[in-house]
Q: What sequence folds into this?
């Protein structure tokens, strides 16, 4: 089961086993522009994503790309 | 924080941000514990975090919220005011609320329309009115200094835009402190060395409830485009935004820039209506806008 990234109203599926940084780059999301949380806890760029992970991304630039 | 080669747990991160803020306040001689500070709060992450940090550090900091009358389909101004008031209530802090429409008869979007400024967007009118009102209120209420929540991304984006345009007069003015002058309150930016991402993390980890949606008129703005461009650079060159800003401050201070050491700002004189300094020969730009808006609205 892939991991899922959610940014505002968009969802991106990525392979489990990737780091968050690689998953963001693969999804064309600028890593510097978001903060990632899993189950409400902030996670760092080097965190390895697991099967079924749902990662909520919080945009740091308000009003930026949707 | 790749730019600092530093990773901190929640507890230490929430200590590190205020400690660094204190360091910047002292380094740039922003204010002292004996001075009264007015923090401009918008209900956003940066301004509420700044207020939180200053109070934690033991500074005398009150808040100022300006009601702009912006709805944008998300009840933006009401929600940002509610969050600012909630923060003040929960921390037992004093918040001054000033409503632009009550003061001048028209909200920001109405002023933009009736004064025909800003090419269909109220951002220019909003910036002008906020600068004018923040200065007026800080001085009227006897505050020593006005503090805003500008972070490093804000400063780097402004610097980037001014550099692209070689706007020497604006470059000359940009910095963590704008000193007090005749008619002008001292303005400081204690968060100017923190990345926007760092301030978002601080607000989230502190449990500060802030307005996540930015002003509906900000979407697609030039400053956001510059921020996104700089973030692309930051991804491949960690620390580039910080270096860009700090090297600018160093160069400006040393006189290495194209700016000559003794360049004088244009002569300023008091506006005959509001008394604030202006470089125009008659009324200041803000008072002219209000006059024009009132004539149009009649």
A:
């Amino acid at each position: 089961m892939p991991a899922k990234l959610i940014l505002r109203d968009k969802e991106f599926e990525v392979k489990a086993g990737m780091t968050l940084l690689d998953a963001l780059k693969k999804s064309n999301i600028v890593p510097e522009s978001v903060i990632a949380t899993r189950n409400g806890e902030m996670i760092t760029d080097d965190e390895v994503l697991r099967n079924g992970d749902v990662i909520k991304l919080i945009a740091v630039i308000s009003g930026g790309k949707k | 924080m790749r730019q600092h080669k530093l990773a901190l747990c929640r507890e230490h991160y929430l200590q590190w941000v205020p400690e660094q803020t204190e360091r910047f306040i002292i380094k740039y001689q922003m204010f002292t514990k004996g001075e009264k500070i007015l923090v401009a709060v918008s209900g956003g992450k940066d301004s509420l975090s700044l207020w939180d940090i200053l109070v934690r550090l033991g500074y005398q900091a009150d808040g100022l919220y300006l009601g702009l009358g912006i709805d944008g389909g998300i009840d933006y101004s009401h929600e940002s005011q509610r969050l600012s008031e909630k923060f003040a209530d929960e921390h037992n802090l004093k918040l001054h609320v000033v409503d632009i429409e009550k003061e001048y008869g028209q909200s920001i979007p109405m002023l933009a329309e009736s004064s025909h400024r800003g090419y269909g967007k109220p951002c220019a009118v909003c910036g002008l009115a906020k600068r004018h009102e923040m200065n007026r209120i800080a001085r009227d209420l006897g505050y020593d200094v006005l503090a805003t929540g500008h972070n490093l991304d804000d400063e780097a984006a402004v610097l980037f835009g001014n550099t692209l345009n070689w706007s020497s007069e604006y470059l000359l003015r940009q910095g963590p402190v704008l000193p007090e002058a005749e008619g002008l309150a001292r303005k400081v930016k204690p968060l100017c060395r923190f990345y926007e991402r760092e301030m978002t993390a601080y607000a989230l980890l502190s449990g500060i409830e802030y307005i996540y949606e930015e002003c509906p008129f900000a979407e697609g703005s030039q400053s956001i485009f510059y921020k996104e461009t700089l973030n692309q650079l930051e991804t491949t060159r960690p620390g580039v935004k910080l270096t860009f800003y700090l090297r600018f401050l160093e160069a400006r201070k040393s006189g290495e820039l194209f700016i000559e050491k003794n360049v004088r700002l244009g002569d300023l004189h008091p506006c005959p209506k509001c008394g604030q300094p202006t470089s125009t020969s008659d009324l200041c730009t803000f008072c002219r806008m209000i006059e024009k808006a009132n004539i149009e609205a009649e």
